[in-house]
Design brief:
binds FE2/S2 (inorganic) cluster, five-stranded mixed beta sheet, alpha+beta
Length: 107
């Protein structure tokens, strides 16, 4: 299990334990995290699972692939250098302690 935290735009945090191998999006949806819509179910086709990775942890994640990078141009909230699609981020113990900041809107 790996512990990750979601923080919404109001600064409220929710920390959860997640089984390794699931995605950050799946963890958010199955734990009722407000602010992750995930309309496409994880196929990198909707950009409604957009998160900002706390910059302190950016070097712990692999770079986005070409499909994710392209879809990040379609986020409803502004794309930033630390923007990611949470459905493309697989939980491993290397992510333990990561904080994901939620944009204030997804659509
Ligand atoms: S769930 Fe649709 S792009 Fe991530």
């Amino acid at each position: 299990m790996t512990q990750i935290t979601f923080q919404n735009a109001r600064g409220e945090r929710l920390t959860i334990d997640v089984p390794d191998g699931s995605t950050v999006m799946q963890a958010a949806v199955s734990n009722g995290v407000d602010g992750i819509v995930a309309e496409c179910g994880g196929s990198a086709m909707c950009a409604t699972c957009h998160v900002y990775v706390d910059p302190k942890f950016a070097d712990r994640l692999p770079a986005p692939d070409a499909v994710e990078d392209e879809m990040l141009n379609s986020t409803a909230a502004e794309r930033r250098i630390n923007s990611r699609l949470s459905c493309q981020l697989v939980i491993t113990e290397a992510l333990d302690g990561l904080v994901f900041l939620l944009p204030d809107h997804q659509t």
